[in-house]
């Protein structure tokens, strides 16, 4: 199983930046080309001919039989990779190789010496010292891909089950896409072909007819229900990933594996630990061994399978009521509910009940039922009304503790000017951003009136956002300790790892509560961020943490790529949006950064003052001094040292000398080490040399003692060959 794309790209960056990767320039190009093609899903195009033409500039008459350039370069590249992994890459978590006989790269997770069958379990003891070397116990079963007979047997098991709907065309839909996939025609499984073959639509069928999309949502829910009830112990899973209709087939990991029958068991180790339990492993002739294990002392860990439930706020989405007329009104309402169930779970700070739960409820379900039967704190319900070309959506968030309406909003659109699907998606995204984001309605309510006896992990995440709003050294220590206890108890909680990464990074960039008895803050920040991504590759907070850590590790391009990827995954997350805008601005892309910051602050006016401060600095850099003054006053982060130097800079340039002097003096008391090391402090933040010079000039203007010769050193650095471009 290939690691997540972001992890593979980070490993390639690590290799190419290492002084122990002894490769020529063309070998670097070779590696970049085959990796990019492979990660982009074009592995079948990686042939000697394409490598020769694209990498080595050979013309279209290239013949690999007569010109050995690709074979020779591949041989050298393999040796360079082997040497790297024997030296600098000895402990790297991902191994990249170019197998002989081809040029398609492979990416594999390292297997620890401690063994595949099990690794040490984390003690659920919050009083124990926290360590990033903790690992979790797991029993591993490896198996090859299911055969066609396996899949057809599972298909028959599903469609014949009394728990699978016999009304409608769910069975025909599922049978069609499974048979097409098994016949090697997966590329033909499109909305059009399904509409024609399964739902008998005419050949004039267009995407304006939502039948396939709605029925696909129904089928996904039916499969989800089946595997929760009758199919819980089935050996194989058939799923239909969102975004398409091509089914996937995989062994059901929830089926308990059987122990190996052996004639003699190995003796226990001398230490007295019992021998690891071994599990039966299936070895198909052409199947690949897929092994997942914990990595002791590295950045990657295995998520635990059976952990106590975290006490995040729980939300149930009731089906939106159809109050309109026309034959498609019910499908429209179902489509909106489906979009909400796609947008809301992207916010990992909350728990959203799944599609099966939603589908089992009536549109007018009572809050008492949600509270008593599902033990959920929040209910999102609403209605959709269509009349002619007009469509109106009403959404409401209710607190099941007392039945109060916490929030309500109406959205109106014209079907003649906007596509229905675009309307559904836009409304779902607005609702999700309003109620579920870190500073949204749900977080505000939980903070104001927490449930009785709520002292759990979610409190730590709320405290994290409170810390982000004020950035004080005192709160940093408390929240860091709290999150370390959380991840010791819940090692699979990706969001907590991501938040912990940011707190570790703050030890370095803000000089908050630095430790002398632990690895360097940057190392811990990167490790924690990578763990979050390993646990949940699409976790927005994890991607944000990795982006920020890489940014401060001087990997600007990779950091921005990850940030853009995260924003594409969850375009409604204003915390991420503000962080990416800040990083872009600091890296010299002030206009682009301002656009993202303005959007984040417009969507969430109560966002952290940190982003108001960055927006004020951006206004200063763009020459808008009145906006800079207004912005820094709105930020008002009195406990955060860097707030005061930014305020001093802005006030000095705005002609407010007394205010500039006062803020400068406050800053020097809070961070006496910063100005004497101003060049290094600005450089670690990826601020461009020309911007560094301007800031230093204004810092002097504010009365702070900048060392002599700093400007010359920055100019020399900018003129040095090999300076990293932006």
Explain what you see.
The chain is an alpha/beta fold and 726 residues long. Among the domains are: 5-109; 148-251; 314-448, Rossmann fold. Helix content is 48%, strand content 7%. The protein has 28 helices and ten strands. Strands 5, 6, 7, 8, 9 and 10 form a six-stranded mixed β-sheet that branches. α24 (641-653) packs across α27. The chain is globular, with a radius of gyration of 28 Å. The two termini are 34 Å apart.
TL;DR?
This protein is of the alpha/beta class and 726 residues long.
Q: Which tags fit this structure?
A:
transmembrane, 726 residues, plasmid, six-stranded mixed beta sheet, membrane, disordered C terminus, alpha/beta, TPR-like_helical_dom_sf
Helix content: 40-55%
* Subunit organisation of the chains: single chain
Q: Quote the CATH topology of the domain at 314-448.
A: Rossmann fold
- What would the principal axes of the Cα set say about the shape? globular
Annotated CATH homologous superfamily of the domain at 314-448: ABC-type transport auxiliary lipoprotein component
Total of helices: 28
Number of beta-strand segments: 10
Mean pLDDT figure: 78
CATH architecture of the domain at 314-448: 3-Layer(aba) Sandwich
- Which class best fits the helix and strand makeup? alpha/beta
Q: What about the largest sheet?
A: 6 strands, mixed
User: What is the class of the domain at 314-448 in the CATH system?
Assistant: Alpha Beta
| Radius of gyration from CA coordinates | 28 Å
Q: Flag low-confidence runs.
A: 111-143, 255-310, 450-455, 721-726
Terminal-residue CA separation:
34 Å
Strand content: 5-15%
